[in-house]
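Journal club prep — side note

Before the paper discussion, L.F. wants everyone to see what a predicted structure for a comparable chain looks like in token form. Sequence:
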Amino acid sequence: MSKVINEKDVERCKKTINKEKDFLDKTLTE
């Protein structure tokens, strides 16, 4: 079974990663 990743999923993943990164940055800064 091959997994097909569409662009929307990729974009959603990127946004999620960015949110986590921002959260970590804020936590580290405070």
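L.F.'s comment for the group: The chain has one domain: 1-30. Keep this in mind when we get to the figures.
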